[in-house]
Amino acid sequence: MAVFEADGAAALERQLDAIYRQYMPAFEIILNARLEPLLPGRLFDIGNISFAEGETLGAFRTAALDAARGKYIWFPDRRAIPDPKILQRYVRALEADPGRAFAASPLSSCKDGKIKEFKSSTLVFSFDEEASSTEDSPAYVTDLYSSNKLLRTQHLRGIKFRFSDDPVMDMYKIYQHSTFVKLKAAGIYLDMTEAEFLDLIRSRSSKLPAAAADYLCHVRLYYFTRVTAVKAAAAVVARLKHAKKIALERTNLALRALFGRMKLKNRVFFYTIRSDGELIENMKCVYDALDADKKVFAMKLPHPARVKPKIYYYLLTSKVIVTDDYLRYLRAVRLRDEQKVVQLWHGCGAFKRWSLSAPTQLTHLEELNTHARYDAVAVSSENVRQYFVHAFGVEKEKILPFGIPRTDELVAPGGREHLAESFFAKHPKLTQKTIYAYMPTFRELNGVKVELAPLIDFEALSAQLGPDEVFIIKSHPAMTEDLLGGKLYPNIKSYNGENSFELLAASAALITDYSSIMYEAVLLGRPVVFFCPDFEMFERDFYLRYPEDLPGPAVKDSALLLDTVRRTVAEPPVEKIKAFRESQLDACDGRATQRFAELIRGYLGG
What span, in angstroms and rounded, lies between the C-alpha atoms of 116 and 190? Predict the structure, then answer.
């Protein structure tokens, strides 16, 4: 955030307080050096405020852009009042669409304590919802303001932008050289009327294209045809959708009541949101080992309305329910006492916090109601039971150290060799290579997944790798971003569709950050290196002490990564790995699937 001016110390303090109230995990504030005497003493010790010289607005903003260390930059002025969540919304929009240069939202007036819509600003964001450039949305000329935009620093530097002392024309030039993403909800409020705002832009109309004068003169007409009329039509559609939603909810409510009275069947219902059409990992292991009446529902979210009656039917008429992730429908039904719920949680061990122990989009009550009906939860060791009690809010006796079913194949005699052979059968050219597997996990902002910024200098890494070394990337299934940014390297490959266990078995070492894949690597006897340059910014906390409890070294500098990996492969911390396995994975002895199959048979009465 770059702040140029303030109307006195009290005004500066109010402006900075508004910034510190933003829902952002980390940011820096760059102040004009002239404001340093006005800075409240309590803010000096925070450590994220720096200063940039600049006698004029343009000189300061250019200096701030040059000094900025973050991915994005925001230029609020003294008349802007930000919503506490607006920067978070901007960041999410830009992380979801990496090709856009800036994110913007409508302006509103907040004068004399009254909030009022800027029709001209609303028009910009309603003209064409899919617009991403000035050619798509000519109404942009009524939005030549900087405080309602978050800009990518790299884009501004890439076009070698230099600010002038005319912020209106600066924003016009940025619009001309950029693509953008538009947010519908207002988030920046100005201490001025709309007439004052439009006069500010009209004063530059002679410098703008002829089309600008037309839009500036006919704002009211365009607002009526493009906003008022569209809103009226949308209201009709919204009422119809609401009526349909109410009808569906009443139908589901009636069906739930009906299914809840039907005879309970001696059946096992396998439910997962982690795959489409088939069971994977823990679920598949137990399903294959169980000789019983079984039904499967496997579909990633969101679920269309047409499948919900089927879910409710099997949920309310099956004696045993098995899942490996969130089963949201448990919050909406009342199971019978004879029904049992088995949670084969997809993550091994207890590394980073989740559910009740971490930021989430659910309320505390929703989280509790999701997990409250578990009768059995699979864990990898006696020593991690306490963490699952904390995460799920269930009694400790329901947390069973039976091991994790999918790990059975890892510790089976010849299991590692079989997995490695399977990998090399598909990739024979890698047979004589030393493979380093990089498996990072996803990132979140306030419980919502965001894009993982590249943390490794792949150009430098590729140059450092030897002729017999290969660096293979396999991202977490929840990640969609291309960590290589579309670039190709002869010795760095992305194998996102690869079987994780086969890749681990074929690798000399695992490189990860905060992923539970480290547990499987330990079971396979593979050394692990933890690459965590964003550790201070990582949103979740850990159950383990980081890095003291880890089974391998942690490194933050990309330049040191390869040497650390090579040293760890040459001299793995054998005793540390052994102690970690005994402490965190002692129940993973190859018989976890058998134990859960027997447990479920007992629930069925067989």
Answer: 10
Task: Answer yes or no: do 368 and 454 share one domain.
Answer: no
Determine the average pLDDT of the residues in 312-335: 94
CA 122 vs CA 83, 212, 216, 238, 390: distances in Å: 17, 16, 13, 20, 46
CA count, 13 A, side-chain hemisphere, 574 = 2
Return the percentage of the chain with pLDDT > 70, whole number: 90
CB atoms within 10 A of CB 345: 22
CA dist 33 and 120 (Å) reads 35
**Strand partners for 511:** 438, 529
Residue 424 DSSP SS3: helix
At 280, phi and psi to the nearest 5? -135, 160
* pTM summary value: 0.62
CB atoms within 10 A of CB 353: 17
Query: Vertex 316, ends 315 and 318: CA angle to 5°?
Result: 70
CA distance linking residue 524 with residue 403, whole number of Å: 15
Closest alpha carbon to 404 in 430, 436, 378, 439: 378
Same structural domain, 440 and 374 = no
Which of 504, 443, 508 is closest to 469 using CA atoms? 508
Backbone angles phi and psi of 45, in degrees to 5: -85, -5
127 and 181 inside one domain: yes
